[in-house]
């Protein structure tokens, strides 16, 4: 840990952290732009960096891309990310009532303490969890991935069936190309460009960046009148900190636990924390009308979920969120395989990620307090100017991967696929995470079958793998219950 912290203070390393935090906050503050889009567009730039510098830049972007959404949610009534929706409910009314500085100050303090408390969990739980994961056999790991897929699909916008379909569609995307075990060509359809399969970067940029551009072109609207920002009340007093400390601790704990669960994400953490805060509040009637407790609960949980999501990524190699899936791809590009063996093979990378999370939290706190007025001006830039620039960056970044137009067409194709899936009500989170997890699942399943000469029965007879599969089935059945109740209610209503 000490070595990791000392490494972050190397000049170029600090520059990468500063750039990552600054750009993450800006992108988070602009409605429609997301951290996943930013990291996807930045990946080509990291190809010629060292793994340490690349991970520092990307992790800093990840940690703080959710932070900037507080500014647009509070002052523009436009959440910069889905996770800031709950903040909008109370942040904007409080700002409109004449306390914009107070609303921002509460949010900044909450997200700082939420990030800090989640970092403690990241630093203390990751290594023990990775040591426990080393004992997992190939079939155990395959069962764990299947359980993660069910859990991810179960929170995909409340529609379990669509979540599962999206996840398995993502898995299907990995099949074309060379069979990783036998070396044979499969599902090529006579297209030479598919020899290496669908590359990670074109798929990623297409699904997130290009899809968002298509959606924004159709939905560009006038922005609401921004609140006039003042710095009055921006700095939280010690009295306020003591008053809100139970809420901060509770919300940070909820955010960290929800972040650890694969695929759940900051939006769910924010909603759960907000609901719990309202139930515990002595003045629940103020929620949605400018409640300070609501802002604190939402922002503390949002940022705590980021640190929590890094735990399964480093310890198990399983993404805790969509952006974690992108980080796994980024590490793979630099020949680093996330998972329990990272502590033995790449300990410098692991501790660097943990250290960058801490340092980026303090840098973010300083930049958020010092540059609020600048961020609000950036957030107000019309999309008509932003979208063409982003599209050019997408094409250049993808083409530079292999200097081939096939990757550009792949990006555009998956942009259309992502747009159509979202329009049809499918969540893109399970799609991307299914794309990432499919390779792990196939490798572990084939490895297990090689060990047992093709006998798959140990998958169902091993206590650990069988238990994980049973949990997956229980989660599947449990998640289908609300859907069945909804359809039943619809039939009764139609009959009436």
UniProtKB/TrEMBL annotation:
Ranges in a coiled coil: none
Ranges for domain DUF112: 14-433
Pfam family, one: TctA
Domain of life: Bacteria
Keywords in alphabetical order: Membrane, Transmembrane, Transmembrane helix
Annotated transmembrane regions: 12-45, 57-76, 103-125, 132-154, 160-178, 190-214, 253-277, 313-337, 349-372, 384-402, 408-438, 459-478
Originating organism: Pseudooctadecabacter jejudonensis
Protein name, per record: Tripartite tricarboxylate transporter TctA family protein
Signal peptide coordinates: none
Record keyword Transmembrane helix present: yes
């Amino acid at each position: 840990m000490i070595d990791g912290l000392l490494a972050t203070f190397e000049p170029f390393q600090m520059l990468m952290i500063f750039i990552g935090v600054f750009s993450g906050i800006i992108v988070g503050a602009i409605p429609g732009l997301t951290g996943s889009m930013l990291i996807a567009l930045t990946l080509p730039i990291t190809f010629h960096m060292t793994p340490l510098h690349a991970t520092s830049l990307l992790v800093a972007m990840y940690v703080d891309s959710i932070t900037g959404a507080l500014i647009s949610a509070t002052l523009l009534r436009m959440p910069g990310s889905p996770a800031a929706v709950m903040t909008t409910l109370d942040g904007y009314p409080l700002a409109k009532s004449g306390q914009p500085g107070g609303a921002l100050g509460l949010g900044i303090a909450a997200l700082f303490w939420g990030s800090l408390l989640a970092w403690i969990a990241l630093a203390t739980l990751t290594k023990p969890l990775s040591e426990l994961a080393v004992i997992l056999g190939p079939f155990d790991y395959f069962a764990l991935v299947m359980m993660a897929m069910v859990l991810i699909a179960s929170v995909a916008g409340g529609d379990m069936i669509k979540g599962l379909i999206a996840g398995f569609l993502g898995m299907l995307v990995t099949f074309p190309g060379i069979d990783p075990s036998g070396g044979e060509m499969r599902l090529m359809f006579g297209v030479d460009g598919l020899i290496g399969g669908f590359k990670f970067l074109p798929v990623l940029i297409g699904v997130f960046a290009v899809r968002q551009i298509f959606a924004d072109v159709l939905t560009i609207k006038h922005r609401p009148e921004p609140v006039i920002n003042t710095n009055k009340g921006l700095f939280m007093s010690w009295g306020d900190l003591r008053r809100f400390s139970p809420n901060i601790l509770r919300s940070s704990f909820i955010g960290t636990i929800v972040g650890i669960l694969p695929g759940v994400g900051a939006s769910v953490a924010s909603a759960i924390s907000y609901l719990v805060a309202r139930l515990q509040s002595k003045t629940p009637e103020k929620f949605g009308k400018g409640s300070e407790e609501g802002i604190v609960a939402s922002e503390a949980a949002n940022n705590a979920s980021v640190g929590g999501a890094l735990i399964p990524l480093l310890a198990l190699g399983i993404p805790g969120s969509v952006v974690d899936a992108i980080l796994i791809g980024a590490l793979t590009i630099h020949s680093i395989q996330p998972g329990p063996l990272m502590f033995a093979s790449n300990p410098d990378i692991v501790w660097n990620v943990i250290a960058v999370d801490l340092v980026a939290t303090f840098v973010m706190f300083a930049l958020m307090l010092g540059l609020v007025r600048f961020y609000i001006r950036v957030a107000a830039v019309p999309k008509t100017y932003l979208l063409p620039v982003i599209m050019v960056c997408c094409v250049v970044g993808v083409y530079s991967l292999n200097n081939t137009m096939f990757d550009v067409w792949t990006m555009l194709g998956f942009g259309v696929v992502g747009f159509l899936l979202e329009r049809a009500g499918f969540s893109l989170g399970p799609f991307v995470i299914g794309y990432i997890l499919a390779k792990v699942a196939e490798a572990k399943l084939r490895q297990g079958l090689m060990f047992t000469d093709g006998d798959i029965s140990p998958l169902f007879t091993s206590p650990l793998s069988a238990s994980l599969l049973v949990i997956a089935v229980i989660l599947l059945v449990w998640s289908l219950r609300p859907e069945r109740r909804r359809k039943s209610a619809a039939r009764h209503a139609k009959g009436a």
